[in-house]
Amino acid sequence: MAEMGEAEELRRKLRVAIDAFRDERIRWFVGKSRDLVDSGLISLDKMDELVRYLLRDEMERHAIMREIEESGPLTASELAEKTGISLERVEEHVRVLCVVGELLPAGEKGGSVAYALKAPVEEIMSERRICPCETVVALLNRVLGLW
Question: In the chain, what percentage of residues exceed pLDDT 70?
Answer without folding.
Answer: 83
